[in-house]
Automatic annotation (TrEMBL):
GO BP annotation list: methylation
Lineage: Eukaryota, Metazoa, Chordata, Craniata, Vertebrata
Swiss-Prot/TrEMBL keywords: Methyltransferase, S-adenosyl-L-methionine, Transferase
Species whose genome carries this gene: Pygoscelis papua
One MF annotation (Gene Ontology) recorded for this entry: methyltransferase activity
Name this protein carries in UniProt: MT21C methyltransferase
Amino acid sequence: SLTDSPVTLKILQNCVPRVSHYFDKEHYTYVGHQIVIQESIEHFGAVVWPGALALSQYLESNQEQFNLKDKKVLEIGAGTGLVSIVACILGAYVTATDLPEVLENLSFNISRNTQNVNAHKPEVRKLVWGEGLNEDFPASTYHYDFILATDVVYHHTALDPLLATMVYFCKPGTVLLWANKFRFSTDYEFLEKLCNIFNTTILAEFPESNVKLLKATVREN
């Protein structure tokens, strides 16, 4: 069951007039920093999707409610790295994860945009949803304050492993923030499964782009 009524927001076009003329670079401004994102048209994970813009904007605007300073943050399906970069600028210990073929571009964007940021150095790691979680991220060692996920739910077959990954990393005290553009019935089915497992609240809706931003926490028995 979903509680509270969400705020209705617009995704602000935080794109700065482009300095470069390459099709593959987007310029954004969050938390007073200009962020340059290199995109790749070869992978889904290498394009900035609307959920990433929505969550970046929300984290920037709600720093009191969600204070990331010195918090341990894991982004799953980090893609181009925009959200992880914003979390790093906000002072978090960030681990950005994605599939092996996305990591080169992800690492490039994160290192380029955080090298002058006076914060914790972010980490980039491989994470295939539902695979090798306890070997790569043993529960005894890894505990995250926040799990961030944007546009991880779309028309693909890995929804059950994705849910299993969210369940694995969400311990008591962890906050999952998931922003997604809702396009297909499978998106709503995933949301329903999420609501059956976690305490789930819709924090914000962006009607123009069909993005919903949800907060989920483990049900305490």
